[in-house]
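U., I forgot to send this yesterday:
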Amino acid sequence: MATPLFWVDAFTDTPYRGNPAAICLLDAAIDEPAMQSLAFELGLAETAYVVPRPGGDYDLRWFTPTVEIPLCGHATLASAHTLFETGRAADSVTFHTRSGPLTCTRDGTRIAMDFPAAPPNPVDAPPGLLDALGISEAVAVLDNKQWFIVEVADPAVVERLTPDLRRLETIVDGASVTARSDRDGVDIVSRVFGPGVGVDEDAVTGSVHCALTPYWCEQLGTTELVAYQASARGGTLHCRLAGDRVYLAGPAVTVLRGEVDL
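Result:
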């Protein structure tokens, strides 16, 4: 049976920028091997599966080409965008996920997502991590059980990194490198590498900002940040810390509409 499939670029209003996600709108759940197979076939950082629930909410799951993951920001943004654009939801929608209920709300030209904060804690760097990332000196190394985060002093170091990805995937599943920004109107910059979960470099990563937001808000003495992820595609996130929640906002744009035979 033909199932609607959308290709959406998230955290951007410009096609072919930001982070692409495939959104599969299902009438009912399908088995995990089928979801994983389609995610592998599409080859995007994430493929999201959206299933309606009684009462107007939706179930949402995310798959990289190799594994299911517990939280994905850009594919959640892309899923909400797709439901709003197709008229399946109005101005707000709640997804039920492995990370709990996630509510997305229209916020002007952006969509704001209500996510759990996941503050990182200082740790010793795993052996070989800094070398694999190509970093000679770190300001801090942190871990929030999903991401290792390395802070460096110079944002130029973040932007010119060329990590040894094959070595990195033997050390950690995912790592982010971040610094205070020297860009006008931007507070922090980052990049994210996840070769351990089948994504060599993620273009714009919502889930890592559940850790970066509380960390940098404390460092900078604020509750709001503008974050830029300095991948080749690039993308901007508007971040706000509210207690144990993080609000991440950005636009999205659909670049392809089609059907897939499941």
